[in-house]
Amino acid sequence: MNFRLKKSKVFYIALSTFLIMFIINYSNTILNTVEVFQTNIEMGKVEKQGYKNYSALDGQLRFLLPSTWETWEQNFSGGEILYHLNFLAPNKRIHGFIQIWKMEKPLEQFLEESEESPVDTADYKFYSRKEIIVNNNKGFLVQYERPNNQGKTYRAYDSFLQDGNGHIYRASFYMTGKHWRNYYTISFNKIIQSFKIKQ
Fold it and tell me: Contact at 8 Å (CB) between 67 and 90?
């Protein structure tokens, strides 16, 4: 009887040890699989979300935003910013704005001056700028990550387009670095590509 108890005890200890070793060895794989599964679900939601039409300055700019996002207009003095629409995603992770600026200088010069400013370039974790074309309007896509005043990092995904009439059209998307997911750019790019500028 004692021999059987000892045998079963050894079996359960061996089984427990095996399970612990299995979990230790494959925990990263299991976590990665779960993360991929969650990402696929979230990507599906992003791709299937509905969009709402917006118009600014009597049809000067038409664009789309997800219909579930909260939006509100804001006015600025000074005359440079002609239109400003804030937005906020339901999960509060994504926020940003759409703007129209009155700007006589070329867009590339405006961005280069921003990049050269010591206040703007301090503490970037990364910064990239590339040319884009949206419905025959040339512009730039700027991405960067930097700390904010509270020490948390945030990611930015900014697009700038320019027409031939001295206007800059901007779409800016922000979120904390820890909440950034590459699949969010599907939605961001759809919004940017929806810009229709009256010539």
Answer: no
Q: What is the DSSP letter of 150?
A: T
122 neighbors 136 (Cβ within 8 angstroms) = no
Answer for the pair 140, 111: CB distance below 8 angstroms, yes or no: yes
Whole-model pTM?
0.74
**What is the reported pLDDT for 36?**
47
Distance of CA 79 to the CA centre of its chain: 29
Residue recorded with tokens 């061996």: 14
Return the domain boundaries, the chain.
1-48, 51-197
CA separation for the pair 93, 18 (Å, rounded)? 41
CA distance 157 to 163: 20
What is the C-alpha separation between 65 and 61, in angstroms, rounded? 13
CATH for 51-197 is 3.40.1000.10
**Residue 65 phi, psi dihedral angles, 5° rounding:** -140, 150
What are the pLDDT digits (tens) for 124-172?
778 889 999 998 889 999 998 888 777 778 899 999 999 888 899 999 9
* Gap between the Cα atoms of 103 and 56, Å rounded: 17
